Automatic annotation (TrEMBL), chain A:
Taxonomy of the source species: Eukaryota, Metazoa, Chordata, Craniata, Vertebrata
Chief subcellular location: membrane
Keyword Cell membrane set for record: yes
Positions bound to Mg(2+): D401, T403, D825, D829
Record protein name field: Phospholipid-transporting ATPase
Domain P-type ATPase A span(s) in chain numbering: 121-261
Catalysed reactions, semicolon-separated: a 1,2-diacyl-sn-glycero-3-phosphoethanolamine(out) + ATP + H2O = a 1,2-diacyl-sn-glycero-3-phosphoethanolamine(in) + ADP + phosphate + H(+); ATP + H2O + phospholipidSide 1 = ADP + phosphate + phospholipidSide 2; a 1,2-diacyl-sn-glycero-3-phospho-L-serine(out) + ATP + H2O = a 1,2-diacyl-sn-glycero-3-phospho-L-serine(in) + ADP + phosphate + H(+)
From TrEMBL, chain B:
TM regions (residue ranges): 12-34, 66-92, 128-146, 350-371
Family: Belongs to the CDC50/LEM3 family.
InterPro entries documented for this protein: CDC50/LEM3_fam (IPR005045)
Protein source organism: Cyprinus carpio (Common carp)
Transmembrane among keywords: yes
UniProt key word Transmembrane: yes
GO CC terms of this entry: endoplasmic reticulum; Golgi apparatus; plasma membrane
Keywords: Membrane, Transmembrane, Transmembrane helix
Record-given protein name: Cell cycle control protein
Top-rank taxon, per record: Eukaryota
Length: 1131, 381
């Protein structure tokens, strides 16, 4: 926990708050001013009863489609007509109402959940009595009682613990994902009657960093100088953490409600918008411009045209008096609006509905996928937001949590190495002592290590730790208080539970237990172990030389029964090797290095026998240093370093943090797909690094660029200067010297180039983000980002939850705004899951917080591969095509109508019948594209999974960029022109039947419309690569339905219609040979360029089963590469 | 004006309703989805193994068509050749169709109808002569054509009362608003048939004579079957006679302002061609698509002229009533015969020829390209 103290050093003291413990005034202060702090209420809901209506309406009309509807509705309100505002406003009203009800209901649930937390009863000490209070009524300064396995209702300063040593144990699994027990300490000198305690606490204003807390406690005793005690994070119990292995504690509330560190780390779940939706909105704006310019052109031309004598009001079409009297400008304006209403179909309002349906229905394929089904938890994938399906195909950065996501958080002692002999534990051991030699030593003279050494090694494992034995009576199966869902934890052998701040230590102790040495516990400074012969050995624990990340080792000094004083030390190889004899090192180094590259966490164990004099020196040194008031840390470390010398190396251990199934394969696939993987973890650097190696994120040849507190330690330079120096050095290495990477192609993990891995820790990151001089901030950030972007993998360790989110945000907002994905399983990942474009929750062991806040939840990490490479890819292609197709089909739908205005005196005469205008998007052309967008597999799922590189084909929103959009738009314009003018030339002689009769305007429109429906549907048929029976059914069915409907619509005198303008128009059209011929040729001619493109794109025969990323063909120059990545591929 | 607009575009409202239905569907489903989520949370774990069907696993059997050169090149060739064939047929057919067009507006001083363009002249008649050097094969169709005449004005187009035209006498008394300003005359009598279309009915009439040795021989013009069969037989209906008199069905109404005679007097010679079921009226009521249009006036199918108009001189007497010069319009007469493809229209034939030859050319180009690359492909394989 020294690490916490290190953090405190950088703290700039801003405003502080003063808290009166138990609200008792203090003699020292002149006046007792109860300050106003916020109450302990947690609010995650979005609306209140009062602001619901305006806020919800505002949010809904921020949606461009609803806004557009509103505008059209207003157009009809402004122009005074008796009926139209109601008829068009009513549907809008209903849509808005239904959405509002739905959102209101959801918010209601959130209120309910909040209430559950806020109304939870807690015990508060008031005037000497214990009072039950609702959690939300806790005020800052209240003394709160918390019993075992309860979560803390707010941030508390620990005053009193039921444990003798003034400590308590806490798990912060729901906060930072570390499920181990952490020790917190009471404030010294408060261990007495809390009622008599008069004290004030002065501490910093709330801030989200979980590991930072600075404060001061003034304890007033009658007739004494007030005592001042400094407070650090080790005294602070965080809301959301759970009390463990301690009967009860008392603490004083310092931060409450929304000011607690947990609440500050919680970010509201804001609605995520996918990149596709942004593209849609951009395209929509383009089409809005087209719409407006069309209306402007028509209005202008109308008045130009009318200025000619006789055109404005020919005798056969006279105006009413009212029309004549209307102001010209008003008339122009209303004309403009009428044109708007006439052309408004160009904005595919139905697209939003179809897109939403596609997303909603499409997301079922994720939940249905049996590959995502995990038999262990009996659950499959869960889709919380279907809005982001296509974003899964666009991911550029993957931020992954380590514990529980990459690893199973399940430490296991794998092997050890004693005197250069490697021993692996086998469950079915045959040898007497349970050891199996699996690998020989460097020199082959000895067959086995000396028995003494083995016993010494095991003893060391049993003694050199800070593990505590879980007291009997308490259940080993822990309950996760955060979610109330049982956490399945493997039952420990022999009903023995261990508690330690590091899971490695438990693994080691358990490892020793397997070999017959059992740690029985620590009782009044004496450690008991049971050896192989079932004898109890007792050691007096003299000193513990705590672990710290700079020394990277810890030691214990014990005294045996026989009076020998022994020092056992374990630590990272780099910190042990210089302190032992070199010849010992050589025997072990090879094993250690091999284990490290295999992803095991290795520790070396050394020992030293202390003579009485040596011990006396060390003992005094340690005691003095402990009592020092100034520079206590430095002095302690100096003594430690002095004591831990001249040791002899006994052996090394290898502990495995088991990786999730197929973690490495998944990471490889993601990197192969061009994604950058960043590991963000709250865990220690060493641990995280070994995991990265195990996942093959770091390879043997990867050069690690480290930017941590350790590398910032420099004699000469201040921390920040060193940081700048390092940043620049790394930048030179990774960015400037690196060969230029081709744009758009991310370097693959397998390239021959030097790979760089980047490591940064939370404390350093906070310097990068908030340097002392504001000026440097942007420079540091950009340097940092550039380095990161050139590294194959980035590891960020010791991250607070909010820092994880900060990192995600920084990448998200960097140049090119890449699409980010966060994956995690614990509550500490929630903030980054919420921050990233796509948040994935793993249905892991650390509760369901992550799952609940995620957009998608999958049971295992390995499922991410299929989710992204197959589902994401397909969804993206589907929706991109859907969007482009919708714009295209509405453009060529409405363009003839626009052109017709030039031939009808700009009189807003619709070309098509109202039924056709309405049904076009709903019935005639909607189903094929919906089916396409649900079923299309331009490349089969197996191939997508096998070839991760295919994912890069659609990177950077390839199918929705401006170029493909332009292509589709031009295609729409081309076809629209063709439809209109083809029929226009046909109608230069409207006598199209063999009986000499002529066709009128509705025949004209119907011919154009028929060509349109067929062309647009067949165009989709051309694009379909994957024809299931559903595709056949809807494509041919839609066309058949169109024909059937047209006959039906024109075949009956409809009593509710005020005109029968389409009566027999369709049938008559079909009786004309010329009409047939013009329909056929126009369809063929419209599709000709498409067919040509398809053929020219793919000149190779159908035999080859390869995936083509580039085409060896001259037509490749054709500027349509991005439009049809699907066409570049022949299965 | 927005009333009219709205009736045309009522689809917008309709559309929103459908949109709304979709929206509700989406939201209700997501609501149930949400509650399912909650239930799942409450029960801890309750999910079952997903269905293992081809559909849910996206493994439906599918046909994956590949437009390979082997299909496309012959396909293009076949389409191209077929189109060329059709194109030649169309073009030749179109060439055989004879057309005789005459502008009789009378803009030029020396044109026969010039005097009729004066405002003062009433009941003007003029005579247009023409000669045929060869037989004009029958049946000959006699069209009148108007240009710069916008029958497709939106407000013009809706300015009719369909209920009146189906003989519903209720609407005789109070024509629909859309007919305004052609719904009532200055004395506020309802007009039947109301509206701008009916009011502006083309009322020039023609008589055709063949001049044989200086004498005029009347060419019989057949006015039957010039309108759509459905218009005549189903869509439009006359009001039923009152007390045996057809005219009295129109009591209390007045004729359209521009009409010389009432609807029930349109053709007094033939009761089956009178009222709203007058063929000329029906032809007029079917609005033309473009501002330059022609409408069928008569057919020449009877007597000596059933086989066509023989070579010779003809005289056409025009009862010139219809003013078009105020809006710079033109009137013309068209004699034409028709084929299976309708009237003369070169566009279609040419289009087929062009597209057909394009297809053939493309198939040849593709063949060359394909041959070149196929061999290299084979080398690879």
């Amino acid at each position: 926990f020294i690490i916490f103290l290190l953090f405190c050093g950088d703290e700039k003291r801003v405003d502080s708050r003063t808290i009166y413990v138990g609200h008792r005034p203090c003699p020292d202060t002149e006046a007792f001013i109860p300050s106003k702090f916020c109450d302990n209420r947690i609010v995650s809901s979005k609306y209140t009863v009062w602001n619901f209506l305006p806020k919800n309406l505002f949010e809904q009309f921020r949606r461009i489609a609803n806004f557009y509807f509103l505008i059209i509705f207003l157009v009809q309100v402004i122009v005074d007509t008796p009926t139209s505002p109601v008829t068009s406003g009513l549907p809008l009203f209903f849509v808005i109402t239904v959405t509002a009800i739905k959102q209101g209901y959801e918010d209601c649930l959130r209120h309910k959940a909040d209430n559950e937390v806020n109304k939870y009863l807690v015990t508060v000490l008031e005037d000497g009595r214990s009072v039950k209070k609702e959690s939300e009524k806790i005020k800052v300064g209240d003394v709160v009682e918390v019993v075992e396995d309860e979560t803390f209702p707010c941030d508390l300063i620990l005053l009193q613990s039921s444990r003798e040593d003034g400590t308590c144990f806490v798990t912060t699994a729901s906060l930072d994902g570390e499920s181990n027990h952490k020790t917190h300490y009471t404030v010294p000198d408060t261990e007495k009657d809390l009622q008599a305690l008069t004290a004030t606490i002065e501490c910093e204003q709330p801030q989200p960093d979980l590991y930072k807390f600075v404060g001061r406690m003034h304890i007033y005793k009658p007739e004494q100088e007030p005592a001042v005690r400094s407070l650090g994070p080790e005294n602070l119990l965080l809301k959301g953490a759970t009390l463990k292995n301690t009967k009860k504690i008392y603490g004083v509330a310092v931060y409450t409600g929304m000011e607690t560190k947990m609440a500050l780390n919680y970010q509201g779940k804001s609605q995520k918008r996918s990149a596709v939706e942004k593209s849609i909105n951009a395209f929509l704006l383009v089409y809005l411009c087209i719409l407006i310019s069309k209306a402007v052109v028509c209005t202008t031309l109308k008045y130009v045209w009318q200025s000619k004598e006789g055109q404005d009001e020919p005798w056969y079409n006279q105006k009413t008096q009212k029309e004549k009297d209307t102001n010209m400008y008003l008339k122009m304006f209303t004309d403009f609006l009428s044109f708007m209403v006439l052309f408004n179909f160009i904005i595919p309002v139905s697209m939003y509905v179809t897109v939403e349906m596609q997303k909603f229905l499409g997301s079922f394929f994720i939940t249905w996928d049996k590959d995502f089904f995990d038999p262990e938890i009996q659950e499959g994938a869960l889709v919380n937001t279907s809005d982001l399906n296509e974003e899964l195909g666009q991911v550029e950065y993957v931020f992954t949590d380590k514990t529980g996501t990459l690893t199973q958080n399940n430490m296991e002692f794998i092997e050890c190495c004693i005197d250069g002999f490697q021993y692996k534990h086998r469950d079915t051991w045959s040898e007497v002592d349970g050891f199996t030699v699996t690998d020989g030593p460097v020199n082959k003279l000895q067959q086995k290590a000396q028995k003494n050494n083995i016993i010494l090694f095991l003893r060391a494992l049993c003694l050199c730790h800070t593990v505590q034995v879980k007291e009997a009576g308490s259940e080993e199966v822990l309950t996760d208080q955060v979610d109330g869902i049982d956490e399945m934890r493997p039952q420990l052998e022999e009903e023995r539970g261990f508690i330690a701040s590091s899971p490695d230590e438990i693994a080691l102790v358990k490892g020793a237990m397997k070999y017959g040495f059992t740690f029985l516990g620590l009782e009044s400074k004496s450690m008991k172990i049971k050896n192989r012969e079932n004898n109890i050995e007792e050691y007096k624990l003299l000193h513990v030389l705590n672990f710290d990340p700079v020394r990277r080792r810890m030691s214990v000094i014990v005294q045996t029964k026989s009076g020998e004083t022994l020092l056992f030390c374990k630590g990272a190889d780099s910190s042990i090797f210089p302190r032992v004899k070199p010849e010992e090192v050589d025997r072990i180094r090879m094993h250690v290095e091999r284990n490290a590259t295999e992803g095991y966490r290795t520790l070396c164990v050394a020992f030293k026998q202390l003579s009485a004099e040596e011990y006396a020196v060390a003992d005094t040194g340690l005691r003095e240093a402990r009592l020092a008031l100034q520079d206590r840390e430095e002095k302690l470390i100096a003594v430690y370093n002095q004591v831990e010398t001249g040791m002899s190396l006994i052996g090394a251990t290898a502990v495995e943090d088991r990786l999730q199934e197929e973690a490495a394969e998944t990471m490889e696939a993601l990197q192969g797909a061009g994604m950058k993987v960043w590991v963000l973890t709250g865990d220690k650097m060493e641990t995280a690094k070994s995991t990265c190696y195990a996942c093959r994120l770091f390879q043997r040849g990867t050069e690690l660029l480290e930017l941590t507190l350790r590398t910032l330690e420099d004699e000469r330079l201040k921390r920040e200067e060193k940081l700048r120096e390092l940043l620049q050095e790394y930048h030179r290495k990774a960015v400037q010297d690196a060969p230029p990477v081709k744009a758009g192609v991310t370097r693959s993990w397998s390239t021959a180039n030097q790979d760089y891995g980047f490591i940064i820790d939370g404390a350093t990151l906070s310097i990068v983000m908030n340097p002392q001089h504001e000026v440097d901030a942007s420079q540091y950030k950009s340097l940092f980002l550039q380095i990161c972007q050139n590294c194959t993998a980035v590891l960020c360790c010791r991250m607070a939850p909010l820092q994880k989110a900060q990192i995600v945000k920084m990448v998200k907002t960097s140049k090119g705004s890449p699409i980010t994905l966060s994956i995690g399983d614990g509550a500490n990942d929630v903030s980054m899951i919420l921050e990233a474009h796509v948040g994935i929750g793993i249905k892991g062991k650390e509760g369901r917080q992550a799952v609940r806040n995620s957009d998608y939840a999958i049971p295992k990490l390995k499922h991410l591969k299929k989710l992204l490479l197959a589902h994401g890819h397909l969804y993206y292609v589907r929706i991109a095509h859907l969007v482009q197709y919708f714009f295209y089909k509405n453009l060529c739908f409405i363009l003839p109508q626009f052109l017709y205005q030039f031939f009808c005196g700009y009189s807003q005469q619709p070309l098509y019948d109202a039924a056709y205008l309405t049904m076009y998007n709903i019935c005639f052309t909607s189903m094929p594209i919906l089916a396409y967008s649900l079923l299309e597999q331009h490349i089969s799922i197996e191939i997508l999974l096998d070839n991760a590189t295919l994912y890069r084909e659609i990177a950077n929103n390839a199918m929705l960029r401006w170029r493909p959009f332009l292509y589709w738009t031009l295609l729409g314009i081309f076809q629209g022109l063709l439809f209109f003018f083809g029929v226009r030339f046909l109608f230069s002689n409207p006598a199209l039947q063999d009986n000499g009769q002529v066709f009128g305007n509705w025949s004209y429109g119907t011919i154009v419309f028929t060509v349109l429906v067929f062309t647009v549907t067949l165009k989709l048929a051309l694009d379909t690569r994957h024809w299931t029976w559903i595709n056949h059914f809807v494509i041919w069915g839609s066309l058949a339905f169109y024909v059937f409907f047209s006959f039906f619509w024109g075949g009956i005198i409809w009593p509710f219609l005020k005109q029968q303008r389409l009566y027999f128009v369709f049938a008559n059209m079909l009786s004309s040979v010329s009409a047939w011929l013009v329909i056929i040729i126009l369809i063929i001619l419209s599709l000709l360029p498409e067919i040509l493109l398809v053929v020219l794109r793919k000149p190779r025969g159908p035999h080859s089963r390869q995936v083509y990323l580039s085409l060896p063909f001259p037509f490749w120059i054709l500027p349509f590469y991005h439009i049809h990545p699907i066409l570049c591929y022949s299965p | 004006m927005f009333v009219a607009l709205h009736s045309d575009l009522s689809s917008f409202g309709f559309f929103s309703i459908v949109y709304f239905i979709y929206e509700i569907e989406v939201h209700t489903v997501s609501l149930s989805f949400l509650s399912e989520d909650i239930r799942m949370k409450n029960e801890g774990e309750a999910s079952e193994q997903p269905d293992n069907t081809a559909f849910t696993q996206q493994q439906l059997p599918a046909w994956q068509p590949i437009l390979s050169a082997g299909i496309v090149i012959p396909g293009f060739l076949i389409i191209g050749l077929a189109f060329l064939g059709i194109g030649i047929g169309l073009f030749l057919t179109s060439q055989t169709i004879q057309v005789l067009e005459m502008d009789y507006t009378g803009v030029e001083k020396d044109s026969p109808c010039f005097q009729c363009t004066m405002q003062s002249v009433q009941n003007c008649t003029c005579e247009v002569t023409f000669s045929l050097s060869a037989l004009f094969t029958g049946p000959v169709f006699f069209y009148y054509g108007l240009s710069n005449y916008f029958q497709n004005f939106r407000k013009y187009g809706v300015s009719k009362d369909y209920y009146q035209l189906t003989g519903d006498t209720q609407y005789f008394k109070s024509p629909r608003d859309v007919c305004f300003p052609y719904s009532h005359d200055s004395k506020n009598n309802p007009i039947v048939p109301c509206g701008a279309i009916a009011n502006s009915m083309f009322n020039d009439t023609f008589e055709l004579y063949q001049i044989i040795n200086g004498t005029k021989k009347k060419v019989p013009l057949d006015g039957k079957g010039i309108s759509w069969w459905t218009d005549f037989n189903i869509k439009y209906r006359n009001p039923s006679s009152v007390n045996g008199s057809f005219a009295s069905a129109f009591d209390g109404t007045v004729k359209p302002i521009n009409w010389p005679k009432a609807a029930y007097e349109l053709d007094l010679t033939d009761p089956n061609n009178n009222g709203f079921l007058n063929q000329d009226f029906l032809v007029w009521m079917r609005r033309a698509a473009l501002p330059q249009f022609r409408k069928l006036y008569r057919r020449i199918t009877e007597g000596d002229y059933a086989g066509g108009l023989p070579a010779g001189n003809y005289s056409l007497t025009v009862h010139y009533n219809y003013p078009v010069l105020s809006f710079d319009g033109r009137k013309k007469l068209v004699f034409s015969n028709v084929s299976w493809m309708g009237g003369k229209n070169d566009f279609l034939g040419i289009a087929y020829l062009v597209v057909g030859s394009l297809c053939v050319v493309m198939s040849v180009v593709m063949l060359i390209v394909y041959a070149k690359f196929k061999f290299s492909d084979d080398d690879d394989a």
